[in-house]
Amino acid sequence: MPTTATTTKRGRPGYDQQSVLVIAVDVFNRHGYDATSIQTIADQAGVAKGLVLHHFRSKSSLLEAVLEEYFDAHTEVLQYALRAADGSPRQQVHQLLDHTFDFMVEYHSHARMVCYLAGRRDDKLPMLQRHARPLLALVEAALGGFLPTDGPLSVRQFYITVGTMVAHSFAYAPLLDLGDGAEDMRREHVHWVADAMLDKLGLDPA
Questions:
Q1: What is the pLDDT of residues 91-108, one digit of tens each?
Q2: Counting beta carbons within 10 angstroms of the beta carbon of residue 180, is it exposed (0 to 12), middle (13 to 18) or buried (19 or more)?
Q3: What is the rounded average pLDDT of the residues 30-39?
Q4: Whether the Cβ atoms of residue 115 and residue 167 lie closer than 8 Å to each other
């Protein structure tokens, strides 16, 4: 499975671009994008504001880099999953879901931020859509052979449903205190929902 680590761009000794990105995601989630300033991120990192601006020209360019990191890593993981997938369409969907779960273990904070920004439907939406477009195109190309192109069971509707269930597992499951084995139960539940949708399409259960 590919690594989701990104190549870092070194600035001053002891701090790099990747470190700034990690802190930015945390601060955006805790304070909201609008309420966060470059100074806030620098204070959280314990560095001078100029060091953050050494890597990123503005808060908007910093957000752009965070989104690029998240969607590029997500796309890479799904590309790997699709190359490795074998068996029936149903088995391929299960493998795709499992790789998505594994990805979200590392990137759930990014997913939380993306969901928040998308829900606002403001001037950041075009930026989100631009970064999400290649990921959606990949999913449509992979699943379009056995899922409809439109309607309530289309590729896009299918991906929205199962993708949201995976992402929200990391947001809401902890609130319910599901105990030991919660992640495995969520995986099984998402597989079951995906199977129910595939059953509706009359796909071979094998």
A1: 889 988 999 999 998 999
A2: exposed
A3: 95
A4: yes
pTM: 0.85
Taking alpha carbons only, the member of 100, 108, 113, 110 closest to residue 159 is 100
Amino acid symbol at 201: L
Q: Are 106 and 74 in contact (CB under 8 A)?
A: no
Residue 172 makes CB contacts below 8 A (sequence gap 6+) with none
Distances, alpha carbon 46 to alpha carbons 19, 42, 55, in Å: 11, 6, 15
Q: How far, rounded to the nearest angstrom, does the alpha carbon of residue 141 sit from its chain's CA centroid?
A: 19
Q: 3-class SS at 16?
A: strand
Please tell me the distance from the alpha carbon of residue 104 to that of residue 2, in angstroms, as a whole number.
14
Position 39 pLDDT exceeds 90? yes
Return the ∠ at Cα 74 (arms to 71 and 77), rounded to 5°. Answer: 150
Percent of the chain exceeding pLDDT 70 equals: 91
